[in-house]
């Protein structure tokens, strides 16, 4: 059980690391605040009573002319700046939920005791976001660049806090310079092609935004949209073009960025599917239904057929009505649909299309090998099309001129419909049963 729990914890930690890595990979770090300590004014963030100096000096400088110089007060017993004392704390206004990172340069100003400090980043709730317990500042002119790495506060304020790990005295002097606060503003703005299908009366552009869940934004763009954040585009009166959704993805603080997600609206043609009007057939008849040909489209009939055509028929010996429905999804994602109802009725006195017996199919039933035989070698049939019991196209055979026999090979245990076509004769439909 302990091993299982350990594995679960390890996998969870790995997930957090990978998730953070994925987020950071989208970051564009922007400078929010810099402090070079070039102003000759008292620094308000040094903790009173911990250092002799509280304004920038020239003793050890990383960039520019001045740096913040902290000459810690001697630690005598428990008096003065002793190990563990807080020596510096600076607040920063940030955007809740938005990653930030802090960095600065540290150096031990003079020879003597080398400075060693602890630096933490906490939020306004006291939550620890980053803790580096021991940082050795090299002797000037060498410098150590401290960085907090990426942290994500949930409050609008964070605190950069420094503690000394070595008590004051004996030359324990620390210089700090070139402080930088950066915010991650990557992955906010996007441009999406919004396909609006011409057979829809309207389209909510908000539904086309890539992963945006904020509902407080406003739309602007090529034309007028309705329904607030939904940005409803009216297909009949709308103007194709760019529409921009402007919102605050984090919070509305002054430090929080606006996002501008653009939907480039284009009108796309939907598959114009027309199965014809409802009709009536004899129970012995069949009808080839076609949804049309649309390059790159996918088809789905309610009888499971996934091609553009299906064969309508019935094996019923009483009157029955079958409804056929097809959905065609175009290459552009637009959908066309149509339905047809076919009433099959029991007919009498209807002449068989092959009543003259010029065509025979033997053996029928067969064991998977059958042949079509033509009594007249000068027949005009040019095409044989085979459909399965669902109406799906199985194969299409060009009939050679003057042929007298055509082999038909199918899987045993099924029923097939064979449609013979010619230029000047009505199609002939034969039924083939495989044992």
Folded structure, characterized:
- The protein is mostly beta strands and 435 residues long.
- It has four domains: 26-184, Galactose-binding domain-like (Jelly Rolls, Sandwich); 190-268, Immunoglobulin-like (Sandwich); 279-345, Immunoglobulin-like, CATH 2.60.40; 359-433, Immunoglobulins (Immunoglobulin-like), CATH 2.60.40.10.
- It is 6% helix and 42% strand.
- It has one helix and 28 strands.
- It has one helix at residues 2-25, and strands at 29-35, 68-71, 86-93, 100-108, 116-123, 128-136, 144-147, 157-164, 173-184, 190-197, 202-204, 218-221, 232-234, 241-247, 259-268, 279-282, 287-290, 298-301, 309-312, 320-329, 335-345, 359-362, 369-374, 381-388, 393-398, 405-409, 415-422, 428-433.
- The strands form eight sheets. Strands 1, 2, 4, 7 and 9 form a five-stranded antiparallel sheet that branches. A four-stranded antiparallel sheet has the order 3-8-5-6, with no helix packed on it.
- The longest helix is centred in the N-terminal third of the chain and has 24 residues, at 2-25.
- The protein is elongated, with a radius of gyration of 40 Å.
- The two termini are 58 Å apart.
- Residues 1-25 and 349-353 have low confidence and may be disordered.
